[in-house]
Amino acid sequence: MSALNRFHETASHALEQISTSLPPGAKICLAIYTPEKPELDIVLQDKGLDLNEVLSTLRRRGLSIDGDNAYKRDVLDSAVGAMAFGVQNRNPPPAGHWGQRFWDIGREERALCEELVAALKLTRENLRACQATIHLCGGFDPAYVTEAQAAMKIADAALAKATQ
Fold this sequence. Notes:
This protein has 2 domains: about 5-90, no CATH class; about 110-160. It is about 65% helix and about 5% strand. It has 5 helices and 2 strands. The protein has helices spanning about 5-20, 50-60, 70-90, 100-135, 140-160, and strands at about 30, 40-45. It is rod-shaped and about 100 Å long. The chain starts with a helix and ends with a helix.
């Protein structure tokens, strides 16, 4: 029998003995990890163990969402991706999926951006019409004309970015 098999047998026996003194319905899990060597990770668990509950237990016992680990990076990458897809209005998550919330955020942000672009276009067109009227009437204070033209350039630059 290999050393790994002997370890599994010994650990399983120890967990069975420990579980006899646990409160009714309690579950037990043993996780062994070797830093930088995930291929050596071992998880021994009761039948019917809910790993989400194990994670919740670790969270209640001090596991912070501020720590760095691959699981959290993957979750955050998925949330960011869902928001990006929402902005693009493509690849929505399946019905009932947790990513729907983030996809919807992306859709809402894109809708707000489109609303702001429409408002900026309208404002810019009204400013242009005012400039044309001023020009046809022989002009007003040159400072107003200069400032209005500068404002239109800023609006044009923002519109160019927003409508790419």
